[in-house]
Design goal:
Rossmann fold; nine-stranded mixed beta sheet; 226 residues; 24% helix; alpha/beta
């Protein structure tokens, strides 16, 4: 029951994520973007951070057309768990697996810092072991992290409990301070902060490790069609 970690030209966080799941004790496979199928035993797909295709055209816009993304879309449609982090979040939005879009930070600067976040909804496999409204800290590193969605769709996110994390002291201008969301069925998740960079005390905290562990445990105990 392995974790499939995607790799695109320009991805730079796939090995960080692999190390995180090595700590968890979960088997993983690095999957090149030109592959047409996920490994047969895949229970969780990770779309990691980086600069896929150099962020040309628009962040995630080219990677969305890579062959492996068709397999990821089918996996998600069948109930499989998918997590996109930073550039991975951008790719999932471009692929319409998540609503909304990520655009240039409001201040037009690349932001790299530890960021306080508020846990908004815990009725999901990603944050189930957290308390609502608790404050955690994860690193962020992005230039195109400003989440945007229209007013009506924002109300839908709120009504369905799809807003997972919000920024404390919004660093990039995201609508409603949104830092992470999920889809309506709560099996596709996306966030701009990097949980794989908060997996050891020496790195400043373990909040990220708990998130990734929660998701893996739920993914491996939930049945979905393949």
């Amino acid at each position: 029951m392995s974790v499939a970690i995607l790799q695109f030209p320009g991805t730079n966080c796939e090995m960080d994520m692999a190390y995180a799941y090595k700590l968890i004790g979960a088997p993983y496979t690095i999957v090149w973007h030109q592959e047409h199928c996920l490994p047969k035993d895949t229970k969780l797909v990770i779309v990691p951070g980086g600069f896929s295709y150099g962020d040309y055209l628009r962040s995630g816009a080219i990677a969305r057309f890579s062959p492996i993304m068709q397999a990821v879309s089918e996996f998600a449609t069948q109930g499989g768990y998918v997590l996109g982090i930073c550039n991975g979040f951008q790719i999932l939005c471009e692929a319409r697996l998540l609503p909304g879009a990520l655009k240039r930070n409001e201040n037009l600067h690349f932001i790299s810092q530890n960021q306080k976040l508020c846990v908004k909804n815990t009725n999901n496999a990603f944050l189930r072991h957290y308390q609502e409204n608790s404050i955690i800290s994860l690193p962020i590193a992005h230039a195109d992290g400003c989440y945007f969605i229209d007013e009506q769709s924002l109300l839908t996110l709120e009504d369905n409990g799809q807003i997972l994390l919000t920024y404390v002291d919004n660093p990039n201008g995201s609508v409603a301070n949104i830092a992470g969301i999920c889809n309506e069925h709560k099996n596709v998740f996306g966030l701009m902060p990097h949980p794989e960079r908060a997996i050891e005390s020496i790195l400043g905290g373990l909040d990220g490790l708990e998130m990734l562990t929660n998701l893996y445990k739920n993914a491996t105990t939930t049945k979905h069609e393949q």
